[in-house]
Amino acid sequence: MNNGYMALLAPAGGDVGETFPHLVNTMNAMCMRVRYTSGDMTLFGTEDMPALLLPGGGILIGHLFTQDGITIDESARLPEHSDQTQIRKHILETYWGAYLIIQPDPRGPGAFTITRAPSAAGNLPCIYSIRDGSGFLTSDISLAIEAHLYRKQIDWDFMRHRLRYPGIKTKRTGLADLIELLPGCSLSTSGTDISVRQAWSPWDFVAPEHRYRNPHDAAAQIRHAVASAVRAWTDTDQSILLELSGGLDSSIVAACLRNSHSRIICHNLVTPVPGVDERQYARQMATQLGVELHTEYLDFDKARFDFTPPPDSVIPAMGPLQYAVNETMEAAAERHGATAYYSGGGGDSVFCYLRTAAPGADAWTTLGLGAAITAVNDLASLHQCTLWKASRLTLSKLRRPPPSPYHEDSSFLAPDMKTVERETHPWFMAPAHALPGDRERIFDLAGNQLFESQAARGSSKPMRFPLLSQPVMEACLRAPSWMWIAGGRNRAVARTAFSDLLPPDVVNRQSKATYMSYLGALYERNKHQIEDFLLSGRLRSQGLLDTRAISIFFSKPLPTRDRTFLRMFDLCMVENWVRHQP
């Protein structure tokens, strides 16, 4: 349990001990003790959970760093503010980390404001269930279940939404009456009144007044932000298992680990089929770190469709590939005595790896014809297409209405399945006249908040995504999309920023590993089991699947390059999760 916590809210004027009898004994048995009390709230946390008392009352739990990556601990004093709102604003604008702020609200007894850090990079979730002024907030639903504060029940409306809109992160969970406080949001509660607002927005950093004008300034600021973020986390963790793919993103994380005081173990995954073997690149990075590159083979028998989800799982998020990777990395961490996992996950989104003509459209809208011509040339070079095609796609991007962040998929779902209201994410609320590239990368960035749920190994040891740290996101968002394709290279600003720290082969490579061959072979080996799994499960019994369409699909050979089988993996992910719920 990493910095596990649970905050209990008693009804206004009530007592936690009376409202939740025997709770203290139960929490003590789980190695949780009282870390903070204020009015009607009592906060339990692990002994080693970092905590910082705030000026004017309140507490911050989790890790807090300066912009230069220096840890702010309980011995430090934050500037005094009499206004609770100003304290939150100061923390959000001056510091960063993986934290939760709990503050008594001046509206009166029983009123509190809870703010979650903007980044999901460091493993401090917040899920809650509050009704009539009473309830809990916790990092791990299994704590509330063990304390008899919550009993699992599937939210089938959420499941319908999840099936129709896969890949969308929302505040709702797959369990009834259980909500997640999303990164960068604040929850205010006062008796029966509950409200959530956005405390931090990525849209602030793509505004024209914050945009970098010079690519060299952009590269320098991004390098500083990434290096400081990695250094901050390594000062926290003693022994790191770096999931080093050999791609640009994980290699940048590796480059920032040089001269770290932590012990570094580099691991690379290889599959039985082509597509993922990047050892030639990963080995060069490991050599620069002066460590051995350990290779793990992701055999087909490691990927499972039917497995028990982690106890803290509140949404379907792990498929067969994630399960295989998770089991493999967990075994490696135990074998090497690693205390934390590090990943370059999120790099594509943060480093603006767009696959559309949006950068050309952005340059035209912002800087005019000359910049647009340069950007279109870069697009043509990047995508190995004609200048005419790149120009046509750019004009099309300018003329068409912006695409929706929702990618509806009704394939293989029952035609008469009950419709559900579409859930949103706060980052989907784009300002008027937002640039196409900014829309695409921020929508994509929101999807990265699913990573915590997909990496179950983070339940036992911290799972760090340094590239999703707040200062890295802010610095990268300030670089406009056309800078990221300069010279016909994807993620160009990041390549420039770290060119002297990476092997030339890594800096200059344009290819990316893909698990598609592995997943295709996995499907062919298991297609009959997958069919039985779906047609004998709970999704079918709930009338959510088009069983005839599923049977027809499995009865035919899979056409070359047809990726429809990935939808079957997604349905299996949901089916597996609901099978393991009451």
TrEMBL record:
A UniProt-annotated Pfam family: Asn_synthase
Domain of life: Bacteria
Reactions the enzyme catalyzes: L-aspartate + L-glutamine + ATP + H2O = L-asparagine + L-glutamate + AMP + diphosphate + H(+)
Domain Asparagine synthetase, first and last residues per copy: 222-578
Enzyme class: ligase
Listed SUPFAM superfamilies: Adenine nucleotide alpha hydrolases-like
EC number from the UniProt entry: 6.3.5.4
UniProt cross-references to InterPro entries, sorted A to Z: Asn_synthase, ASN_synthetase/amidase, Rossmann-like_a/b/a_fold
Known pathway: Amino-acid biosynthesis; L-asparagine biosynthesis; L-asparagine from L-aspartate (L-Gln route): step 1/1
UniProt protein name: asparagine synthase (glutamine-hydrolyzing)
Organism per entry: Rhodanobacter terrae
